[in-house]
Amino acid sequence: MTATEEEWAALVPELLVADLARSRAFYCELCGFAVRFARPEDGFLYLELGGAQIMLEEMGEEAWVTGPMQAPFGRGINLQIEVEAVAPIAARLAAAGVVPFRALHEAWYREGDVEHGQAQLLVQDPDGYLLRFVEVLGTRALGGGD
């Protein structure tokens, strides 16, 4: 589902970034996000890719920083972003010299008696946030093998 002007995701992470221009180039030029809207005076971008939405804000005097901001940011979390095709993103990142955290691979996750497959690529953004781009491969019976 692609978000329209009236649609807003129920959960939208807002990431503090060190350099908004650098992050914008990474997210838009390499990962394929589009700017839904921007507030340059606040160092703020609202981005979307398909039904995924994310906010980026350049670090300043944030009221909700709960501790020291030390790179890499976002330790212990990865943001799964479903895309139609992950290979083009992997190719753009490779062409830009970005080394993936985990290269493009196929993964299957069990739910009851079926497995859900996805091609996935994990990459850190310029501030160290871990992004997991996934392309849905479908389902198979448990133990279906590769």
Task: Provide an overview of this structure.
With 146 residues, this protein is mainly β. It has one domain: Roll (2,3-Dihydroxybiphenyl 1,2-Dioxygenase, domain 1). Helices cover 14% and strands 42% of the residues. The strands form two sheets. It has a four-stranded mixed β-sheet, covered by helices on one side. Strands 5-8-7-6 form a four-stranded mixed β-sheet, with helices on one face. The protein is globular and about 50 Å long.
* Cα-atom radius of gyration: 16 Å
CATH architecture: Roll
Biggest pleated-sheet summary: 4 strands, mixed
Oligomeric status of the shown chains? single chain
Helix/strand/pairing class, anyone? Answer: mainly beta
Q: How many domain units?
A: 1
Order of helices and strands: EHEEEEHEEE
Helix content: 10-25%
CATH class, named Alpha Beta
Measure the end-to-end span. Answer: 28 Å
Number of strands: 8
Mean pLDDT: 92
CATH superfamily: 2,3-Dihydroxybiphenyl 1,2-Dioxygenase, domain 1
For the biggest β-sheet, the strand order reads 1-4-3-2
**Beta-strand share of residues:** 35-45%
